[in-house]
User: What shape does this take?
Amino acid sequence: MSPTLFWLFSVLMLGFAASVILNRSPIASALSLVVSFLGLAALFITLNAYFIGVIQVLVYAGAVMVLFLFIIMLLDLKSEKRRKLNAPAVLGGGAITIAFVAQLATVLHHYPAGRRVLEPLASTGVSNAHQIGMLLFSRYNLPFQVIGVLVLVSTVGVVVLSKRELK
Assistant: This one.
């Protein structure tokens, strides 16, 4: 993978992830999250993980975000008003962030296995999509179905809760 592409997609993904938090409009935040998911999918594709990249686009950037946008529009959420900054909270959050980054840099600097180049995996005759599909529909069939029912129930719940009373 080209380091230029890595940094381009990483900056794109992190910039739009920050935009999710900083936007006051829920719809703008959701659309920023879609672009962040697309940047992550591009990172997966540059790492030759095509299946995960395509699933990232189809499931997260497609289906889940359409569901989020549907629920946001159904609830008719408005943009949030700006609030005054709490100086102690900002200073505390900044100190914790600096401490976390320093700790992360220390751990990464003292971890020699992180500098090693990994050997490519041996390829088998069966594709990854086939293996994942067989595993998903054999061993993890019940959790897969339960998640589908939970998403359906949550969507119906939002529709019922947001239904307006006639006067």
The chain has a mean pLDDT of 84.
